[in-house]
Amino acid sequence: MKNIIIVSFALLFAMNICAAKKSKVTPLQFNPDNGVKASLTMTDGKVVNYTAYTKLYFVTNVEDSTYQYMNIFVPEGATHQSPMFLRTYVGGYMASEAGYPQAQDASGRALAEGYVLVIPGSRGRTSTVKQGKKTIYTGRAPKALLDLKAAVRYLRHFDNVIPGNAEKIITDGTSAGGAMSSLLGATGNHPSYAPLLKAMGAADERDDVFASVCYCPITDLDHADMAYEWLYVNTDSRKSLSASKQALSQELAAQFPSYINSLGLKKADGTALNAENYLDYIKQILIKSAQEAKDAGADIPDSLGFSFSSMAAFQAPVNGQSSRPGMGNNRAEGMPGGERRPSVGRPGGGRKPSAGMPPMRISGRKMVGEYITDLDMGKYLNYVVSTQPLKGVPAFDSYNVDGAAASGENGEFGNAQGSDVNFTSWSAEKAGTAVSEEVKENVRLLNPMCFIGDGVSSVAPHWYIRHGARDRDTAFSVSINLAAKLQNSGKDVNFKLPWNRPHSGDYALNELFAWMAEIVK
Ligand code: DHB
């Protein structure tokens, strides 16, 4: 009897181990016969028929079954040559469940244009699993990126059976999702992630992608605070803060010039992009954006800080010329909106035609021949801030700095127990702590700037980067530097600060899809 009991216990124990193993380690699978037919009605009434393959777990060691799978949607007519559009819905560095095509955004549009659509889930800073009685945070940096990289590897692993060409994967995301898209593009096959992916049971495949679409990427987090204060320190909003916050803002702002200079970036003409000319560089990009909108019929009020010169095409910066002497560059060196020399431009933007110039023609709302010649950055930044209040000081690594609460980013770099941590040495020092080696490494693994041009990463050849011209969620320089670094390393980069756009994504889809059609040709 005793023996029977012992054998039974042994059997039960063995079965338990098997059951535990079975639920944790499941081989990667894709069954082409498991597709379900469905359709999506686009906003214009067009119906797109597709086959959905859902709940495709992309790692063998599934830690969180709510998020670590993806859905694939194959539109009618797609072949093994069709490009693939991988849309991540990560926002706020939160977890994101694999979803379904949306008629209103780029996912539905991709299906309608014949792309194989991939929507992966990924863990995030607040996602947890229960281990016994304990709650474990499983999605802190760099887990979301690892999940997305595992999804890319899965697509390569089953490239012969899944319709679509895994060598033509275009990633798309907005904000924290834009950061993820930029990381997918910047960190392809990088050995730094290999052991982590192996431990998760990701396919042993390449994870580089063909192109990355990044809407307002909230990235370069370890330099985001200094960039933010450098840009906004002189706005009325910052000047209305307490003396202690203003002092912090100024300290952070003062760190930005040496960071910019350390990047060694070049403008398109090969000259240095550095702290001396950086503000002017932003200004020229904004002028170009506003001019493009103006040419398309937008009304751009003088009150935002623009100067206009009717018929002055030859002297308009947007046409590659320098501003009229006295009109431009009338700010002192230093920070945006710093001490100014008195402006010699006409108050109110000067729309009077210059002597000897033919009068401008007006066709509808569009004034043909009217050019933006300059922008008062101080005024413009006050306008941006008037449309949405700034973040606090510091904007990102705020935890315990002068009594500030933790930001989402402080959580993103926290540990499995759910801690908030500082991730920059400056904030850590203010908060009376230090950044651990582990956190430093996670910060690096989450910064595309650390991988572009390192000679090791397989960086995507094509990039589409957008940051709205009035998006204050992070400084313009985050996207500007990303674009410049990519351009400098020979990548094809389509970059804009689209006029009057707040923090948002998947807009101007005609423009995006025309660009994608060109690169996949
Ligand atoms: C997002 C926005 C933020 O301002 C931020 O700091 C992080 C993420 C987002 O919308 O994803």
Outline:
The chain is α/β, with parallel strands linked by helices. The chain contains 16 helices and 17 strands.
Sheet with the most strands: spatial strand order: 1-2-3-5-4-8-9-16-17
Question: What is the arithmetic mean of pLDDT?
Answer: 89
Bound molecules: 3,4-dihydroxybenzoic acid
Distance between the termini: 75 Å
Radius of gyration, whole Å: 26 Å
* Largest beta-sheet details: 9 strands, mixed
Number of strands: 17
Going by CATH, the architecture of the domain at 5-220 and 447-468 and 504-519 would be: 3-Layer(aba) Sandwich
From the spread of the alpha carbons, the general shape counts as: globular
Q: How much strand?
A: 15-25%
Q: Could you tell me the CATH topology label of the domain at 5-220 and 447-468 and 504-519.
A: Rossmann fold
CATH superfamily of the domain at 5-220 and 447-468 and 504-519: Alpha/Beta hydrolase fold, catalytic domain
Unreliable runs, pLDDT <50, ≥5 residues?
Answer: 1-23, 323-334, 339-366
Helix content: 25-40%
Give the CATH level 1 class of the domain at 5-220 and 447-468 and 504-519: Alpha Beta
Going by helix content, strand content and strand pairing, the class is alpha/beta
The total of helices stands at: 16
